[in-house]
Design a protein that fits this description.
Blueprint: H1 21-31, E1 36-39, H2 46-55, E2 59-61, H3 66-80, E3 84-87, H4 92-96, H5 98-106, E4 111-117, H6 136-141, E5 146-149, H7 156-168, E6 175-180, H8 205-216, E7 221-225, H9 233-243, E8 247-249, H10 267-273, E9 279-283, H11 288-293, E10 302-307, H12 311-315, E11 320-323, H13 326-336, H14 345-358, H15 364-375, E12 381-383, H16 388-396, E13 405-406, H17 417-427, E14 433-438, H18 439-442, H19 449-455, E15 460-465, H20 470-479, H21 494-501, E16 504-507, H22 511-524, E17 528-533, H23 543-546
Parallel strand pairs: 1-2, 1-3, 3-4, 4-6, 5-6, 7-8, 7-9, 9-10, 10-11, 12-13, 12-14, 14-15, 15-17, 16-17
Helix pairs in contact: 1-2, 1-7, 3-5, 3-17, 8-13, 9-13, 15-16, 15-22
Length: about 550
């Protein structure tokens, strides 16, 4: 009898090794619906990038600077309302990205920073290991809602699920999770944790009744909206129409009620109604206009606040606070107030038209903004920047739906605009995205033209070139007897610069030129830059409308 050889014996299956910490991160991202990670790899995160490469189903978009990957995650979050995820190395990588993380904190955007740490054996010893910070976790906790360091793969699923819940639950804000260099590649059995239920505070019927009583007695109510009301646009509009109240945003709330609706006001038009306002309703808003930008608070003004963050009621000294999701609270308040009020369409339409005529003295910036609005589709995205045309856009650019006007909020982070726009385009590759910047701010991230070309992020950057950090230079001249220092710039030929990166480079010297250039840029299906040479200080400053003076002075 012939005996079977070893080769003929049944093969014993090899056991499947448990996942690494990096694998558990990738599995957790997938479980939470993440489709894109913005990242710049380094030695401490090699295992995470290898796991992403092996998985292959999560898009990874790189950049030429760590700040940019964080801004792209910020833009993704601002445009979608979903968490934007980025990864950088610890220490200098985290610090390079920190301006964007701070912007996300200020704008209440759900951004997740995935980073690493020095090996566990060196933590806290101060020996100067590669990329060591004195206390990275403590630093991150100052600019995030939640941050954690995990030191074993089995801790990853719970920590990642907690990170997503903290980023999106209650008031959205950035979070961070760090896994040390020597842990990312370690293996351990662990179960992936999926999304956890988000707490949704119940609406207090007593507070609603009290707020409705104030509104029923009001002759001239006003609604102020911020980024926390973007998902509640339908509910806000219903309340506004019931009350016939103007809806006034500053930046983040633009488009919640569109500018083409009679009740959709800009901050400049809203200021015209401020002296007569007797009850102001803040919905998902810091109400910056009422306590910082607008002088002469009306006598006897009552404040109603609808916000999911309970701390806001104390900060803003609300007379009535409804602590709940803004959509839930607004719907409850609409149901509780009295009957439909007399239509004020004619009155408000005339007021808005008169205000628009008055702020026409701002000059060329408004003409260029109108040119962009003429070409950009209604669902296209407009990303502002810290520059004269960006400031003018707060009231001089019409917005029709929430999240299409993308801002960094109160941080006012110079240079955020173009890299943020790349993240917006990554989230919505089929929709046009225009980034307006000054020459100074654009040069913070000019190298990311390479990123746009490499990844097919077809943002159209409109660069207004006046050869200065314009706002700074004008302020210095105004405040210091004409003396100015540090604001004058030496610039490249921006259109040629774009071409060297493989983008489309164009020049526009008039608003009509800009219309034609934008048509050409959108039709090209390529990243593009439109250079707009302009003079500094032509026309009135937009700040006379953004920070109006007191009538009592």
């Amino acid at each position: 009898m012939v005996q079977p050889t070893d080769d003929a014996q049944e093969a014993v299956p090899m056991p499947i090794p448990p996942p690494t910490a990096a694998d558990l991160i990738v599995d957790g991202l997938r479980a939470h619906g993440v489709d894109t990670v913005f990242g710049l790899p380094g030695v401490q995160t090699y295992d995470l990038f290898d796991s992403l490469a092996r998985a292959g189903d999560i898009r990874v978009i790189g950049a030429r600077h760590e700040q940019t990957v964080a801004y792209m995650a910020f833009g993704y979050a601002q445009a979608t309302g979903r968490p934007g995820v980025y990864t950088v190395v610890p220490g200098p990588g985290v610090l390079n990205a920190s301006a964007a993380l701070l912007s996300a904190h200020g704008a209440s955007a759900p951004v997740l920073c995935l980073t690493s740490e020095i090996p566990r054996a060196y933590l806290g010893r101060g020996l100067g290991h590669l990329h060591e910070m004195p206390d990275q976790l403590a630093t991150l906790r100052t600019i995030t809602k939640w941050s954690a360091l995990v030191e074993h793969p089995a801790e990853v699923p719970d920590a990642l699920a907690t990170a997503f819940r903290e980023a999106t639950g209650g008031r959205p804000r950035p979070v961070s999770l760090a896994v040390p260099w020597d842990v990312l590649g370690l293996r351990a059995p662990a179960e992936v944790a999926g999304p956890r239920p988000l707490p949704r505070p119940a609406v207090d019927p007593g507070a609603v009744k009290e707020a409705a009583k104030l509104l029923d007695g009001a002759k001239h109510p006003m609604i102020m909206v911020g980024g926390g009301a973007r998902h509640a646009a339908a509910e806000v509009r219903a309340l506004a129409e019931r009350l016939q109240a103007p809806v006034v945003p500053f930046r983040g709330g633009r488009g919640i009620v569109g500018d083409d609706h009679p009740l959709g006001f800009t901050c400049v038009a809203g200021f015209e109604r401020w002296p007569e306002t007797d009850v102001v309703v803040g919905i998902g808003s810091r109400m910056e206009l009422s306590w910082f930008r607008w002088p002469d608070k009306p006598a006897g003004l009552k404040t109603i606040l609808l916000d999911i963050d309970p701390r806001q009621a104390t900060r803003l000294e609300a007379d009535v606070a409804i602590v709940a999701d803004s959509a839930d609270a607004t719907a409850a308040l609409t149901a509780a107030v009295g009957p439909q009020r007399t239509d004020r369409t004619a009155e408000f339409t005339a007021l808005k038209a008169a205000v628009a005529e008055r702020f026409a003295d701002v000059g060329p910036e408004l003409e260029y903004l109108r040119a962009i609005r003429d070409v950009l589709p209604r669902d296209g995205f407009f990303v502002e920047e810290i520059c004269q045309v960006g400031f003018a856009s707060y009231f001089g650019f019409e917005v029709y739906s929430p999240r299409t006007f993308v801002t960094c909020g109160h941080q006012g982070t110079l240079g955020f605009g173009y890299p943020t726009a790349l993240g917006v385009q990554a989230a919505f590759p089929g929709r046009p995205v225009v980034s307006v910047t000054g020459d100074g701010g654009f040069m913070f991230a000019a190298q990311e033209l390479a990123t746009a070309v490499q990844y097919g992020l077809n943002v159209v950057a409109v660069v207004f070139d006046n050869g200065h950090y314009g706002n700074v230079h004008l302020d210095q001249e105004r405040l210091f007897e004409g003396r100015a220092l540090g604001g004058r710039l030496r610039n490249p030929d921006f259109a040629r610069l774009a071409e060297t990166f493989g983008a489309l480079g164009l020049t526009a010297r008039t608003p009509d030129d800009l219309r034609g250039a934008l048509d050409k840029a959108f039709a090209s299906g390529r990243p593009a830059l439109v250079h707009v040479p302009c003079e500094l200080g032509v026309g009135a400053s937009p700040w006379k409308y953004l920070m109006p003076k007191s009538d009592r002075s």
